[in-house]
């Protein structure tokens, strides 16, 4: 390739006349009219550019906002090699001139790249020292590659630059073998919001989610740049800050704060990757909360943007895809949800939203009646992220909740209770109430429902599910009026939000019993496939005779059948007959199960 290009530049009369400019043009990225004038020293740059375009050496960039040309990648690489071999000093001078040109025009990242290309490390450090806030906040997706091209010894010469390098190493490290969290020290002469944002990001990437969210609280008060008086770099920096503050709140379960800040970031980041990234995160927040209309709006906003380069796309796209999968499940569109989750694939080693993806996978398994497969997959993948579901991570509670539901769907009630029984987090309240309902502990189920009925930490989805448990438990306990009140609330919330999937979180027989109470359900009770088998609470209320209640209470003392017969002055056969009647009415098969259920029902 180099021989061919060199030969063309020599034997072709037209190319030979612009040979020097052709070689220098490879140094400029982007190759604009102004950059060409810098390279040509003001000598007929426009005419030389037009000649290179006519000869096919450069191509016009139709996507640029100013006249710009592209040197094809293999041609550019060859021209640079020729320039380095023939006039290395001239190439270095051109790169330095371009770096200064872009610094003068307020584009430090373009200047930074040219300085790295020139291997002028003093200038690289000067640009970093002067513009690191802008570089870090507006070009985060590119900084990892840029920093990797700088020798470590150069960056280690100053603590701040070494921190930047360590932070990007932390970002790209697998979560099961994380890089150490860098210490971000406040510099005496530059105590500002950028350093606080860096600390928050470092904490979040290190799995300290609650601390990261707390670090972000002061940043919620950042002033919104005036769109007319501010520069593009200032608006981009504000958008980037809002994006990462919003992400920090989102992964810590502070959904309302996340939505507020991400909306600001979406507006400020218009025309950049931030706009799309913020839309995807907003869609995910609303989808988890059960806000179907809002989630759909932000999914549409996110999908309007073109795909980014591969590495950037891997960072930006998962949140929006997970939101779309959850929204598809809420519409009972399991085919679309399956397609999205399959396309997303297993979580990447450095994926921040891995837990939300597993949560969606578990919801799909619950909806499609494959709880064992869902539980197996989630448990396996969670081992890859051992430090990323504690310390305030909302996915820790979401995953515990969906795993408990999957266990309940498998009939493993004890394991489900072990998983979330002691939790006090509102995101697991509905799962805990379902467990109590399933084993027939009606007072226990209602106690959880009433405790979290007004908890502002519960999502709309949680509230509908809890109200349905309250309705089922009240009906099973012989209180149809109370059941109707709970059901009315669930139906009203469902109509307001469009959220219907919580109704499949009850066994089918329970749903049919609730349908007879009067309020019209938003789903067909006969056509809705439940995620769960029938529970003990699905049966009519236990009605024992006075004599059977006496015998039941004697069974609870541990006394033998003979001892019970002597105590009540009846025959052994009479006691056995009454015990069999008790078993039949309570749908149990042993004394232990009978006594346990009687205690939960408040009969003993």
So, CATH architecture of the largest domain? Alpha Horseshoe
pLDDT averaged over residues: 85
Determine the strand fraction and express it as a percent band. Answer: under 5%
Rg over alpha carbons: 33 Å
Overall 3D shape: elongated
Percent range for helical residues? 55-70%
CATH fold category name of the largest domain: Serine Threonine Protein Phosphatase 5, Tetratricopeptide repeat
Strands side by side in the biggest sheet: 1-3-2
Q: Runs with pLDDT <50, length 5+?
A: 187-191
**CATH class wording of the largest domain:** Mainly Alpha
β-strand number = 3
How many domains? The number is 4
Describe this structure in words.
Keywords: DNA-binding, Transcription, Transcription regulation. InterPro entries: Sig_transdc_resp-reg_C-effctor, TPR-like_helical_dom_sf, Tscrpt_reg_LuxR_C, WH-like_DNA-bd_sf. This is HTH luxR-type domain-containing protein. By secondary structure, the protein is mostly helical. It is built from 33 helices and 3 strands. The protein has a 3-stranded antiparallel β-sheet. Strand 2 and strand 3 form a beta hairpin. It starts with a helix and ends with a helix.
